Amino acid sequence: MMPAARRSIVDRLPAVRGRLRTDAPLDRVSWFRVGGPAEVLFTPADAADLSEFLAAKPADIPVTVLGVCSNVLVRDGGIDGVVIRLGRAFAMIEAQDNHVTAGASALDLNVARVACDAGVGGLEFLSGVPGTIGGAVRMNAGAYGRELSDVLVDANAVDEEGKAHELTPDDLRFGYRHSALPETWICTGVTLRGTPEATDTIAERMAKISAEREASQPIRTRTGGSTFANPPADAADGAKAWQLIDRAGCRGLTRGGAMVSEKHCNFLINTGDATAAELEGLGEEVRRRVFETTGVRLEWEIRRIGRHDAGPAEAAP
Question: Which active-site residues does the annotation give?
Answer without folding.
Answer: 177, 226, 301
